[in-house]
Amino acid sequence: MSERETWTTEEFGASHEGAVGVLLADGTVPGPVFFPMSSGGGGPSVSQWSVYDGHFAHVPRAAALRAVCSCGWTGTEHRLDWDEIGEEELAEVGASAADASLEDWDEHTVEVEKSAVPLPETVTGLLTRLEEEIEKLAKSSPLAAVRAARRLEVTAARVGYWPAHDARQDATAEQAAAALGLNEDGARKLMARFGRWNPYL
User: Fold this and answer.
1) Mean pLDDT, consecutive 10-residue segments, the chain of 201 residues?
2) What is the largest CA-CA distance in the chain?
3) Which of 42, 73, 79, 121 has its CA 20 to 30 A from that of 138?
4) Whether the predicted model's global pTM rises above the 0.85 cut
5) CA-CA distance, 164 to 176, in Å (whole number)?
6) CB 12 within 8 A of CB 182
7) Exposed e or buried b for every residue in 90-124, given b needs 16+ CB within 10 A?
8) H-type helices in the chain, by residue range?
9) Rg (CA), the chain
């Protein structure tokens, strides 16, 4: 796997892993750049946007940056002006385009959250209040807060068991993935964890 900075949300994890993607002048996506070690052995394979500056023969030059997501979504192209960049470091002068890409991905995850099955306000309100109360408890008694978090784990495992089995019967893998805001693999593993079955059977 090539090295590059990625972003995730706590709820959607690897199903919506974002990064800054690179486009070349011809509209193609470049492959990772390999940097051999000075000793002549192996080396890192890098696809971090800031390495695509064209300073070496084997390194192509980025024409635009855009957000990409592991779900296949891509964001708006943010063009790079090389006449303006000149010999400056791409990592510095391209930072605004990279930041704009992150903002695009943030908006994408908001849309993913909106498209997931809605939760009643009573449930979201209770979860928010519970989180606030445990954070408050942590200031006076960290161990009590840890115990409360552990009780949450136990409760989640208990209350999620039968819904996971019912959902397995009632929904297709595609429907479950859409409702949970995950890819099919992520949804299958989540339901298997709550339902306590092997996700690969």
Assistant:
1) 88 98 97 78 84 92 98 98 92 97 98 98 97 98 98 97 97 97 97 96 81
2) 62
3) 121
4) yes
5) 10
6) yes
7) beebbeebbebbbebbeebbeebeeebeeeeeeee
8) 82-85, 90-93, 95-115, 121-140, 142-170, 173-180, 184-195
9) 22
